[in-house]
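Table S7 (text form). Paired inputs.
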Amino acid sequence: MPEKRIAVRSVWPIMGMPDASGDDAIEAVAELPAILAHNLRRLRTRQGHSLERLARLSGVSRAMLGQIETGKSVPTISTLWKIALALGVPFAHLLAAGKVQHMAVLRASDAKVLSSSRGQFSSRALFPFEDERHVEFYELRLAARHREDATAHQPGTRENLLVAHGVVEITVGLNAPCVLAAGDAILFEADLAHSYRNIGDTEAVLYLVMTYASPVG
């Protein structure tokens, strides 16, 4: 992939597990720490939360939140989801920067790419974060035989996935796993815990349309 990006190691726990010790890192364009710092501080203060209160709501420690707000580190994808859920905002609100006018060209070289599990899972935004919207569009990549777990999103959130390459198993809540091959698609309620598992021997590529119950941005 042609993205210009840097690896920023996270020392924070994900999904309630012990400290990741660098196993889960977000790879991002160089300005991402500053964008996250600004957006978290703005969203937290707008809602009247102290760092202590947001730590209690999100399950992310005050020290960790403080490191994000000072731009010293970029958290894991799971940590960002916890913070977004605690603030009651879409994930993309934490990544938004600048203002888009009329038309936006999204260059691959400038893409915001989030990756976890030592690069075995990555998510690339295929939309501008700044406009109000009900829908978001992502490219997902899963390494061979890798499983990625996702926490439940905001109530009313839906995911529509299309498999472009590979064979992937999707599990939603307590439902039986569903196997999708290239060209297959699935629509599901994403306010339940869910997972994506590549059951093939090559990288899987998926395209995700995420729809929110209320406009975001």
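Next pair, protein 2 of 2.
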Amino acid sequence: MSQIAASERAKILIVDDNPVNVSLLVSALRQEYELSSAYDGTEALRLAAEQLPDLILLDVMMPGMTGFEVMQTLIADPATADIPVIFVTALDQGKNEAQGLELGAVDYIHKPFDIALTRLRIRNQIERKRQRNLLEAQKRELEETLSRVKRLEGIICICMYCKQIRNDQQTWQQMEQYISEHSEAMFSHGICPSCKEIHYPPQQVKIPAGQDDV
């Protein structure tokens, strides 16, 4: 597999108090992702807030702050609440796994690691995160567009003679300029029949002297 440029890689934070587990995950993932690691909950929270990774692999059983406690703190902070978390555990499935999922974890990886399955689970969550980011970006773009259109609603002060519009800075603009700045509209120019008669009157036909109608 060809290596992906670092600027295009998803960021993963690995949290485990056992350096051997960290090394195994780093070896399995370093060609595809930008990795960082923490060995306790306090360091994990600091790095998560600083780096805002795309995914956190979080060990459940750690001295001091457990993975569950780290997860609760992440969710309580709006800056980190949306970072997907996969719990990494050697605990038996069942009650402990249900607890993690109830807290908001997106998946579980069990020790000892099945490297192929681990990569697949991680790849699935990274792709889901990218899709969510794309949808959020599209939503923001749509909201910004609607906001620009909505700014044309309400009362607009327009000169009754020259048809210039008074903007928010209390200066006067040509109507075309104002609408272009406040919407996605574009203009082309033509001439209506009434203005054509005023500005381009038909040529008057001169009749030579002596040839007037009888």
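The helical segments are 19-29, 41-51, 67-76, 95-103, 115-150, 175-182, 193-199.
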